[in-house]
Amino acid sequence: MLSNLAHRALERAGLGPIRDKVLSKERLTEEDAVRLFEVKDLAAVGALANHVREERHGNLAFYNRNVHLNPTNVCVASCKFCSFARLDDQEASEGYTFQLDEAVEKVLSRKPLGVTEVHIVCGLHPTLPWEYYTELLRRIRAAWPEIALKAYTAVEIHFFAQKFGKSYAQVLTELKAAGLDTMPGGGAEIFAKRVRRKICDDKATAEEWLEVHRTAHRLGIKTNATMLYGTIETLAERVDHMARLRALQDETGGFQVFIPLAFHPEHNMIGKAFPKPTGYDGLRTYAVSRLFLDNFDHVKAYWVSLGERMAQTALSFGVDDVDGTVLEERIYHMAGSHVPQGQTESSFHRLIRLAGRVPAERDSLYHVLKVHEA
């Protein structure tokens, strides 16, 4: 229940009408969301977002046991915010491409740790054959039948379709037959054409990203959704991004979670021009997304991007998921992230409990596997 103190703070901030909409479960407009971004009283907005979060999930905070696999960082795209991609797999350029046996073994080596999901994202490699991507899934599935395979972003699916002369449906159907369970949400960045033209003009457009996810949902593949914040986008462009996700979710119901991702400025082309987003900006982005995305069940704070302390704090600003153990993460660490390379389950429990929440281990489809009461 929203406290009297929070009610008064929202009134003082001029958010009484928005508060009333939220409490009556009336959908917020894009103008409402921009207003929430602009208001100075972060605590008041956070309290409202926390009310919605606790209505949906009580005191639970979700996580899973996962390992990341990035089979190659060779990429033909030239996204100006990216610190992961390389033009070739020569040692001097820090580019690499795993052989299939090597990639599979990296995943299987984590089996004794009780991992339940492998998260696979590649660069857009110019010469790897289609069979590399399907065989990778097929081999992991054969060796580890119970593992959940969350693989290949919409940008990769679009790239595969163009390169190999297939439709999105054909690509996804063949990947699903090879073992694909769900899809990550990367590559969305910001949907606004103005922004994409300046920071990622040579990869899938916003419309193409959305169409890939629409197709995946029609095929019964659940997916995630992301938003990169903290580069050149305006607050209105952030809201437009979320509005387009909300519209597709109304249409298909196939998104599982929304994940705002903080821009990391290290080791990329635009890092000197744009500092890392502040904690204030991160928390308000999580809070506004929880209030605006009324048809998304979950909002995730990706602790590798945000940092452990901010992810913990976000659990009181609308967030209910802190991702997972994230073993072998490369993309954000190559962008300068200084968080540990993976977390133990016990450290996750401690982080969540110290935030006043109850750890709940989930699978890739957000089924609760175990609630770890104190």
UniProtKB/TrEMBL annotation:
<keyword id="KW-0949">S-adenosyl-L-methionine</keyword>
<dbReference type="InterPro" id="IPR013785">
    <property type="entry name" value="Aldolase_TIM"/>
</dbReference>
<dbReference type="InterPro" id="IPR022432">
    <property type="entry name" value="MqnE"/>
</dbReference>
<feature type="binding site">
    <location>
        <position position="79"/>
    </location>
    <ligand>
        <name>[4Fe-4S] cluster</name>
    </ligand>
</feature>
<keyword id="KW-0474">Menaquinone biosynthesis</keyword>
<comment type="similarity">
    <text>Belongs to the radical SAM superfamily. MqnE family.</text>
</comment>
<feature type="binding site">
    <location>
        <position position="82"/>
    </location>
    <ligand>
        <name>[4Fe-4S] cluster</name>
    </ligand>
</feature>
<feature type="binding site">
    <location>
        <position position="75"/>
    </location>
    <ligand>
        <name>[4Fe-4S] cluster</name>
    </ligand>
</feature>
<dbReference type="InterPro" id="IPR006638">
    <property type="entry name" value="Elp3/MiaA/NifB-like_rSAM"/>
</dbReference>
<dbReference type="Pfam" id="PF19288">
    <property type="entry name" value="CofH_C"/>
</dbReference>
<dbReference type="InterPro" id="IPR058240">
    <property type="entry name" value="rSAM_sf"/>
</dbReference>
<feature type="domain" description="Radical SAM core">
    <location>
        <begin position="61"/>
        <end position="293"/>
    </location>
</feature>
<keyword id="KW-0479">Metal-binding</keyword>
<keyword id="KW-0411">Iron-sulfur</keyword>
<comment type="function">
    <text>Radical SAM enzyme that catalyzes the addition of the adenosyl radical to the double bond of 3-[(1-carboxyvinyl)oxy]benzoate, leading to aminodeoxyfutalosine (AFL), a key intermediate in the formation of menaquinone (MK, vitamin K2) from chorismate.</text>
</comment>
<dbReference type="Pfam" id="PF04055">
    <property type="entry name" value="Radical_SAM"/>
</dbReference>
<keyword id="KW-0408">Iron</keyword>
<dbReference type="InterPro" id="IPR045567">
    <property type="entry name" value="CofH/MnqC-like_C"/>
</dbReference>
<comment type="pathway">
    <text>Quinol/quinone metabolism; menaquinone biosynthesis.</text>
</comment>
<dbReference type="InterPro" id="IPR034405">
    <property type="entry name" value="F420"/>
</dbReference>
<keyword id="KW-0004">4Fe-4S</keyword>
<protein>
    <recommendedName>
        <fullName>Aminodeoxyfutalosine synthase</fullName>
        <ecNumber>2.5.1.120</ecNumber>
    </recommendedName>
</protein>
<dbReference type="InterPro" id="IPR007197">
    <property type="entry name" value="rSAM"/>
</dbReference>
<keyword id="KW-0808">Transferase</keyword>
<dbReference type="InterPro" id="IPR020050">
    <property type="entry name" value="FO_synthase_su2"/>
</dbReference>
